[in-house]
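Hi P.,

Sorry for the delay on this. The queue was packed all week, but I finally got your sequence through. Input first:
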Amino acid sequence: MDRENKDTVKEKDKLSYDVYNDRTFAESYSNKIEYNSHNALYERPAVRSLLGDIAGKKILDAGCGPGVLSSELIDNGAILTSADYSPEMIRLTKERTENKARALELNLNKPMDIFKDEEFDIIVSSLTIHYLKDLTLFFSECNRVLRKDGMMVFSTHHPFMDFSFHSDGKYFETELVKDVWPSYNISMEFYRRPLSELFSTVRQAEFTVDEILEPLPSEKCKEKFPDAYDVLSKKPWFIIFKLKKLTEE
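Then the structure:
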């Protein structure tokens, strides 16, 4: 493999890494998602609603970003390990959690060799998997490091929303697409996948789907961001899965 092809493979293993690792963007993003409509008043409350009582639970936040969710989980009594591919995001996570989280720089496209088998009670992955090239490896590794009676909750772009924004492609194929974030004046690359592929991938990794949530925005979103509330009430932006390990009968 020549140098150019090696660099291309490396880039796809760290999709949108340069954006998330830019300090100016990272700090702006960290501040916005703490209080905004789509994250703070729509996606995160929905994710938390599936987690139940987390006091004393060992949780892996896989793709922790700037640590907003990690911090909330710590405040509710969880024991956190937070992982992200971006050193900037890990720096912000350490600051936000006041070093109460075990924060690790980790590329989730690769085996999570740093973790032991059945190390965690819960794995949560918020808006991360659409940046991952190899979902089969990721979910298999999550199964390995999760206790037999543990659970995994992950959120991602809703396939309906992705295809409505990028309808020039083929829905039934996994495609690399680029999205413009006008509020930050940047472009993000991510993978668009059909819903059937998500189901088949988690099943292949020996998970069962316990619950699926297509969330609605909170009433507080209606008060603070009425325009966003109107959009999110009519079109699904994200989708959230709650998984459990398949057990032998």
